[in-house]
Specification:
Layout: H1 18-25, H2 28-55, H3 64-69, H4 71-82, H5 86-95
Helix pairs in contact: 1-2, 2-4, 2-5
C-alpha cells in the first residue's frame, strides 16, 4: 500500500528526459508499459481506499440536507483530489527505482 501523504511526485505535468527511461529497461516502450501497469495498480488502491473511507459516512437514510453538510466527507474528497495522478506517481516510482518488474517469459527480475 502506498502512503499517499509521502508521495514526492509532482502534481502537474513535467517534461521528462526519455533517455532516463531507456537506461532502466533498454527500451522506452517497455518502460512506458511498466509505468502504465503500476499506474493501474495505484489507481485501484486509491479507489479502494477512498471508497472504504467514504463508506464510513454512508447511512441508509441520507437526506439532501445531510449530504451537503458533511464537512469531513468533503475534506476527504478534497485530499484525494490534491494527490498526484496515478501515472505521475508511477513515473516517479520508476525513476526512483522503487518498482520491481520482470519479463513474463524470462522469469528473471530486471530490477
Amino acid at each position: 500500500m502506498v502512503d499517499f501523504k509521502k508521495v514526492k511526485a509532482p502534481n502537474n505535468t513535467v517534461t521528462r528526459d526519455m533517455a532516463k527511461f531507456e537506461e532502466k529497461t533498454g527500451n522506452v516502450y517497455e518502460a512506458v508499459a511498466v509505468i502504465g501497469k503500476r499506474a493501474n495498480q495505484i489507481s485501484l488502491e486509491l479507489k479502494e481506499e477512498l471508497t472504504h473511507k467514504l463508506q464510513e459516512f454512508s447511512t441508509q437514510s441520507d437526506n439532501l440536507e445531510e449530504i451537503f453538510e458533511n464537512r469531513e466527507q468533503i475534506e476527504i474528497s478534497k485530499f484525494y483530489e490534491r494527490i498526484p495522478k496515478p501515472a505521475l506517481i508511477a513515473t516517479q516510482e520508476f525513476l526512483d527505482d522503487q518498482i520491481d518488474y520482470r519479463h513474463a517469459n524470462a522469469g528473471n527480475d530486471v530490477n
